[in-house]
Amino acid sequence: MTAFATNISAQRVRLSVCKLDSLFAHPASITGCLESINNADENLRLYCESDPAIALAIINLCRQQEIPFDFANLNFASIVRQIPKSQLVKTILAIDIHDSANEQKLNFIMNLNLRSGIRAYTARLIAEKSSPNLTSQAFVAGLFADIGLLALAQLFSKSIEMLFEEAKGQRSSLLELENQHLGNTDNALSNQLLTKLQFPAAIAEAVWLAPKATNDLIAKLPNGKLIAIVRLAEILSSPTITDDISYFAKHLFLTDSDISQIRQKAADRHTQIGKLFSPEKANRHAYLEAIKNIYLKQLSAETGEDNFTQFAQKFIDVFLPNSPLSEATEAAAKIFAESFLVQKLCVFTADTANADLILSYVIDGSSARSVLINSPDGFSIADAEKDDFAGWLFEQIGIESEKSYYIPIKNACQTVAGIILDGPMPDKKLLDKITSLLGVVFALAGENAHQKQITQITLDTAAVSQPVQIAKPQPIAPVPAVPAEKQDITQIAAELAAGAAHELNNPLAVISGRAQMLIAGESDETRQQILSQIVEKTKDIEEIISQLMCYARPPVAQIRTVSPFIVINNCLEKVNARYLSEPIDIHIENIENLGDIEVDAEQVAESLAQLIYNALESYESGNGPVQITGEENAQSVEITIRDYGYGMSEETLVKAAEPFFSDKPAGRQRGMGLSIAAGLLKNNNCTIKIESQPDAGTTIRLTLPRAS
């Protein structure tokens, strides 16, 4: 087998997947959903129950609009009845679709959707017979069990399709190939993505563990029954049964007759769902575009004062008056694109710091980025009204557009910025109000005006019957004016982190985005390598900022009951992703049988990973060995991490938890690992004790609270 995926780093895969908030949909799903909304038939429910992209979009909408729903009793038919028709249409149209011209990819996505829908339905049938209280959770876990695979197909489609073909449909073979070539498995990525999307822990863990569920694992884990249901649903929804299901059937109290009935119903469901993804629906791209334009025209006509109020409120919520122009362009572009469902858009203005540059923020489908453009000689923003400017600008930022429109943003009759979009023009009256508001904002952003000014002028410009409620940003509490030598290190770090993140993230995004654009157009390998190094180093700086923010202001812990076995496995996923194919020597003892703990699983896994990184780095080889053991008593669980590396002197041990302190050579370690770990552990009511001697290694003992 060719090593077609070896250049995709495990860290890149994991980070790319975990950044996703939504999935691309099969074009047949979008066409079918719009038809179903228009005809008021039940097919919309079927699409929600078979296409994870549609289901996730509806769930996200419920959260945004505060529409009540419960994973323990999820009913898409009931949910969609609570959502106004226009809002449903907006939500469906906002979903990106897979390329309708790529027939091979569409077939691959269609088969994954069919598998998801049948598995979800089968899991529901199994739960109804064996554990009725798990019916809804089993259905959701079955539906989203392939979310990691769908995410990989969205981001690395060719590699995943080749892996899938090589595995010949065998789940275990596919997982082995994914781990070999991507450094990750789709079930582990599903767990991480669902956790990030705030799905219940039981569902995320079932999705993760079901493909490799063994009898012992199911018997030991508190979530074992749900895992068994999802695993059996995977087997029964396949055309042929190749696995031994006797243990699962016995564990779930299912008879041979029950199994036969479930198989027959699953086959009937396959026929029903198959009709949803008919080739004519997938290939009617022109019809889909016509539907889009019809609905967009209807939606644009709904231009009452509420629409402007919502736009203004969204803008003011995210944009602070003393923010730079780069943030004004970003906020305007994102909110404009969201409000009018625009797929291709550029908001631009002159860079006040450099008259030769055009500062812009670009949205092109699912990607968004800041771009600095060298302006033509003698250019001013007023020149943007020339007929050829829109095409020139789209060419500079790398967007292909058949027809684009230029919308000036003016303040006191003077052009201060502009919008170029590809798509239907919004209603003129609403557009005039919005550009008037943006004109004031851009003018004040350029002058760095005071917050009170932008608040008052925004209200004057809005002139609506129900005034915009402006939420005043909460100022960062000042560091007490005490002598520097007595200031708490956390307060210093918090002030530094807030300032660094605000001042550095925007220019870093510009540098990275510009370098990536240059890579795309560069044919010289040496120059490509240099530009790639620029991108890589900007990511390193972003990671340092993120680490400092995590240390200074740890996120609020989401405490829940979880098995230490799950936490340790999450931790090892992180470690393996970081070290890619490098050999590392980690031994684990007495972890599987430990009692449950009450912590934020993600935060504790991250803290453990940071401690393991340090332990591995304590060796000259950088690969261990590291020993992880567990003990427990009535009140707590103790995890011990032991290495036999360099060890630390008493003087070093005192400073070990300080941010950026490291006794390693420059470039070997950033000195943030123990600081982050200690902060996250404290955040979870855990304690940490360190014992170390030079040349004798280090022992770290963590005490975690037992579940009550």
Task: Explain what the structure shows.
- The chain is an alpha+beta fold and 708 residues long.
- It folds into four domains: 10-280, Hypothetical protein af1432 (Orthogonal Bundle); 303-462, Beta-Lactamase (2-Layer Sandwich), CATH 3.30.450; 484-552; 560-705, Histidine kinase-like ATPase, C-terminal domain (Heat Shock Protein 90, 2-Layer Sandwich), CATH 3.30.565.
- The protein is built from 30 helices and twelve strands.
- The strands form three sheets. Strands 3-2-1-5-4 form a five-stranded antiparallel sheet. A five-stranded mixed sheet has the order 7-9-10-12-11.
- A hairpin with a 2-residue loop joins β2 and β3.
- α7 runs antiparallel to α17 and α9 crosses α12.
- The relative contact order is 0.06.
- Mean pLDDT is 77; it is low at 1-8, 301-305, 448-487 and 665-669.
Element layout with pairings:
Elements: H1 10-18, H2 27-39, H3 43-48, H4 52-65, H5 76-81, H6 85-93, H7 103-130, H8 135-143, H9 147-155, H10 157-167, H11 171-182, H12 186-196, H13 201-209, H14 215-220, H15 224-236, H16 246-251, H17 256-274, H18 279-283, H19 285-301, H20 305-318, H21 325-340, E1 344-350, E2 357-364, E3 367-374, H22 389-397, E4 405-411, E5 414-422, H23 428-447, H24 451-462, H25 489-520, H26 525-552, E6 560-562, H27 564-579, E7 586-589, E8 597-599, H28 601-617, E9 626-632, E10 636-643, H29 650-655, H30 673-683, E11 687-693, E12 697-705
Parallel strand pairs: 7-9
Antiparallel strand pairs: 1-2, 1-5, 2-3, 4-5, 6-8, 9-10, 10-12, 11-12
